[in-house]
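Course assignment 3, question 2. Fill in each field.
Student: A.L.
Task: Predict the tertiary structure for the chain below.
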Amino acid sequence: MAAKSSPREWIDRLVDAVHPPRTVYAHCDIPCGIYDPHEAQIAALTVIRMDQLIGELVPPTADTKPEERKETFAKLARYTAVKEAHSERVKSEVRVIWGDFFTPDHAAKFPQVHELVWKIMKQASKTRQGTNLTDAQELLKQVQEFAELFWQAKGAKTRRVPSMQKPGGELVLPA
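Answer field:
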């Protein structure tokens, strides 16, 4: 036998039936106050690396053996999937910091932040659409600029250090 529901539980179920709750997503529901553009920079470096690997693939010819052709197409598919996922990750990481961390006071102090975020969103989409290494490098440049603004908004000076990753590049870190 089921336990008897309270009037409050009955009303909650009725409200949920009429207006079902929506699923919401957020970096942190607390908010936790923990933000760092490092992940966006690593994702941008990954986009560069995938474009490098795609550029290094040897296109199949009429004489290419079927197993070599399959291997090339499998690599292309994997590199493309990773590139697209990391382009989207750049967008997500930047969007969360911009939307959750930057306040109206930050925007007044750094008025370029809104346009920069817009440019990053557009550039990340461009890197998903193609394999132009210059586009990927531009994305990293924009994300680095965003990282510098972020750390300045937190009152920190920044420094650039070699990424020590295969695609090269630098990371912007607090000094």
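Instructor remarks: The chain has one domain: 35-174. Strands lie at 158-162, 170-174.
Grade: pending
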